[in-house]
Here is the input.
Amino acid sequence: MAFEIIDPKTNQVPILISVPHCGTGIPSAIRDQYDTEMIQSIDDTDWFVDQLYDFVDMLGIKMVKAKYSRWVIDLNRATDNTPLYQDGRVITALCPTTNFNNKRIYKNSSPTQEEINQRISSYYYPYYDQVRLELTKLQRQYKHVLFFDAHSIRQYVPGIQKDIFPDLILGDVDGKSADTRLTSAATDILVNSGYTFKHNHPFKGGNLTRTFGQPQNRVHGLQLEMAKTVYMNDRETMYDTKRASRIRTVLHNLFETLIITLNDMNR
Here is the structure.
C-alpha cells in the first residue's frame, strides 16, 4: 500500500487532510540506486508532519498520508513535470534526481521513463485515487467539502528564495482552489496566531491542491506550508514537543473554525 489512512474517532466532518511528503520508505528494489550517504537522512522529507496533525481524528477529520519518500515519487507534482512556478526557483521533478539544493541523490544514472511509469502506477495514482474516493464519499454527506494539504519545509532554502521563509504560508492557488469564505476564515486564524504569515507567497499550492481544489464543484482546496523550526529544533533534526504544542493549538483552532465555516456553507 502506497499510503496509510487514519480514520476519525468521532463523527466525520467534511475535511480530508493529505500529508504527501511525510513518507520515508524506499522500495528495496531501487534502494541501491541512491547515494549511500544521502539516503541515510532524506533531506526533503516533511518530517513529523503526520505526528503534528495526529489530533485531527478527534475532530472527526480523516487523514491520508504517504508511506514512500518524495525521492521515489513526488505526489505533489504533475505527471508531465509541468513546473508549478515560473520564477526561476529550483523545482524538483516528479521523480527527483537532486534535492532542493541541487545535490544529486542517485549514485549513477537517473530512473528511466519505464521506471518512472512504474512508480506512477504503483505509488502516484493509488494516492490520487484514494484522495478522490475519500472526497467523493464526503460529498455524499455534505454539499461543500475541503481538501487540506499539509506540508513543511526548511526555514531557509536558497534555491527557492534568498530570505528565510515565513512561519506559515497558506495557499489557495491565487484564489482559484477554495471559496473565499474558507480562505478568509483560515487567514484570520493564522494572521492572529503569533507566527509570521504569508498568503500564496512563495507557495500557492502544489499539484494536489490544484487538482482537487475545485470550488465550482464544491470541493475546496487549501495548502498549509510551515517552516520546520515552527515545530522542530533549530537544526531541523528533531521534533520539539514545546514548539509543536504551541502550533498544535493554532491548528486545532484553525480546524474548528474551518468546520464551523463549512457547516454554515452546508446549511
